[in-house]
Amino acid sequence: MKKIIIGLLVGLAILVLIQDFIAKKQRNTTAKTGPYVVMLSLDGFRWDYTNKTSTPNFDYIAKQGVKATGLQPCFPSKTFPNHYSIATGLYPGNHGLISNSFYASDLKKYYSIRDRDKVENGKFYKGEPIWVTAEAQRIKTASYFWVGSEAKIKGYRPSYYKLYDHNFPYGQRIDSVINWLSLPFKERPRLITWYLDKADGVGHDLGPDSDEMINTIGMLDSLIGVFMNKVNQLSIKDSLNFIIVSDHGMSKIDSNKIIYIKEFIQDHWVDTLIGANPFSLVYSTKEYTDSVYKNLNNVNGISVWKKDDLPERFHLKQNTRCSEIVVVADSGWTTALSTNKSYLGGTHGYDNMNKDMYGIFYGIGPLFKNNYNAKTLYNTDIYSLIIHMLGIKPAPNDGKPERIMHVLKD
Predict the structure, then answer these.
(1) Which of 343, 375, 390 is the last residue in one of the domains?
(2) How far apart are CA 58 and CA 125, in angstroms?
């Protein structure tokens, strides 16, 4: 009987040792194949929003990880150009998405964020987004509504991606990201990009200083807490790095400072006028370019440039898709096309040096420093940062790694 009991105990001990060996091997495998990077974009989340209300989850990330005082967007400070700049490390003038809508003279087609066929047409997207770089080097990626992820670019899409659905519940978006991170090792993406739009919508409709914005900031902070709690239940939690960014900020509209562009130009002077508030691409007819420029240049509250005279820091004039005339409202001003519409709430698209246009950057995880103030960062550098974190080779880009690598541990 004693021999039987001893045999059972020995067998049990061996079983425990085997299980422990397997567990250690799995942990070692995870460590060897990591790290993982998850990047969330909060559209229109201005750099100072966390100062407006209690944000315990943002505060936790800042204390345990990295927080920038602001993330400078590219010009124009619009949604599609800047999401794609974050993804590629390129200025809009180099990656081709020069605004949310534009005329692509190289393709002889118009692009609009609301045109499903164009959004999914890879010919509009130049450069190489981070998921293409990764997939080409055999690293699986996933994307939930990030600009460009629905198009096949250089022959690649993310291994997992979603077609944009504006009304898809945020809780289910979180669950989908967690499910991706829970996949078996060979199927699991090492890079995930995802997107929440709420702050931008509220900012446009009601303004950055509204009570609804305060509620939205708190709600988004809570969702981040939900996501992080679920991440902490994952086996790969110790290999996961979480980045939160935004594409741009938001500025309050002053209803007493509105300029109606069409009051200063004649219809036959212009082939197409795209955009209005506060950034416009004016595709003028060749013989009237000077007339358009002269008339608009005398209007108080806006800045007007011919394409070739655009400031070098905009990095835009080299692109053939850029219009002959570019109009940008000065800070505090609004440009509009119709006098029949009321202009309230907020907007973005101003000069990217306007502090209201600055977004956020937070990072937490094993690769990030702790309790680190990163000061001002630039969104074209994020591509280089993630490339380094994943340990892969970059595509040509406009980023300056030395401006951002200091957020990582030595």
Answers:
(1) 343
(2) 33
